[in-house]
Write a structure and sequence with these properties.
single chain; 5 strands; Nucleotidyltransferase, domain 5; 5 helices; 18% strand; alpha/beta
Length: 137
């Protein structure tokens, strides 16, 4: 019985990760569960063509960037549950200046929870339009 206990002790010591690092407590903001659980996401699309014209595709239409903040605030306020999830789908090779401009507008609209996704750019696409499936969201 002593041999088994010794083998278990050796096995436990060999498989236990020994580290001198201590965990650090980080203050994270509280999550508003209403916005997290909203079943109505707001999905925005931005590519080279839209950005060059100063527009973003949201709510099944092209909206000028100047009116984006107001539109998002109005839609988020009218969403059931009092909050919405925001998704920004951008072209992978979109110049950063366009993304920065949209991010500033989202900041004005007081968007606090945002998921940014990318899709292949027009230069990297091969064959027929590879973004057609993205437009169905």
């Amino acid at each position: 019985m002593g041999d088994i206990a010794f083998l278990l002790l050796v096995f436990y010591m060999a498989t236990t990760m020994v580290t001198d690092q201590k965990p650090r407590d980080i203050a994270v903001p509280e999550l508003d569960s209403r916005a997290q659980n909203s079943p109505y996401p707001i999905v925005m699309y931005l590519d080279q063509d839209l950005a060059s014209r100063g527009q973003v595709f949201v709510f099944n239409q092209e909206i000028p960037l100047e009116t984006l903040a107001g539109e998002l605030q109005a839609r988020a306020a009218s969403a059931p549950g009092g909050g919405s999830r925001f998704f920004l789908n951008i072209e992978k090779d979109l110049p950063y200046r366009h993304l920065h401009r949209v991010m500033q507008l989202l900041k004005e609209a007081q968007v606090r929870q945002l998921v940014i996704t990318t899709r292949p750019g027009s230069q990297g696409a091969s064959g027929p339009d590879t973004t057609a499936g993205d437009e169905q969201h």
